[in-house]
Amino acid sequence: MSVLVKICGLTDSVDVSAVINAGADAIGFVFAESVRQVSVERALEISRHVPKHMRRVAVMLHPAQEEWQLVAKGFSPDVLQTDAADFDYLEVADNIERWPVYRESQDMDVERMPDTFVYEGTRSGQGKTVDWQAASLLAATKKMILGGGLAPHNVAAAIRQVCPFGVDVSSAVEASPGRKDAEKIAAFVAAAKSVEFQ
After folding, report:
1. Does residue 198 lie within any of the structural domains?
2. Which of 33, 68, 71, 160 is 20–30 Å from 57 (CA)?
3. What CA–CA distance (Å, rounded) separates 30 from 147?
4. Is 163 a catalytic residue?
5. Neighbours of 1 (CB within 10 A)
6. Domains identified in the chain, total number
7. By residue range, what is the domain housing residue 126?
8. What is the pLDDT of residue 45?
9. What is the tens place of the pLDDT at every residue in 91-109?
10. Is the entire prediction scored with pTM above 0.85?
11. Residue 125's closest CA among 177, 180, 58?
12. Does the active-site annotation cover 86?
């Protein structure tokens, strides 16, 4: 099988089309404060042609309950991705997948972690690689979506070493902060999908 590939931080319809054409499995829209932040209205507009089989991921960071509900009701994402602790207070409907983010710097009780989660560095969108050896130990027990410093040139090696359920990229497939590069997106997806494992 091949890994799930998520391209994150989309801000315009041209870039969304590039992600669809490249064959990614999930597409992330950032509602947290960021150069890649979009409004609910903007996310709806640019994701209109996303096919049903692609997960539309709402990416947030410590949102207030009211803020999340505006996204949930206005955008109707397939997935909510936010820090693991945020799920302690957020009300998330059963039909929305939860992808809690665990960070390299924090203590983790593996037995209490959910089946699917995102693993990345201390801060999102910084392009810094996590310790792949440590990540591989977590990936052996759960469905880990690996983020942090992945790029077209190293994602295949990361997949071979870590054996994650999925991979997540944002800054490494950009032409400039917040604007994606179609060739880099295609190269990343192709490199990730080229690795087959059990």
Report:
1. no
2. 160
3. 15
4. no
5. 8
6. 1
7. 4-193
8. 97
9. 999 999 999 999 887 777 8
10. yes
11. 177
12. no
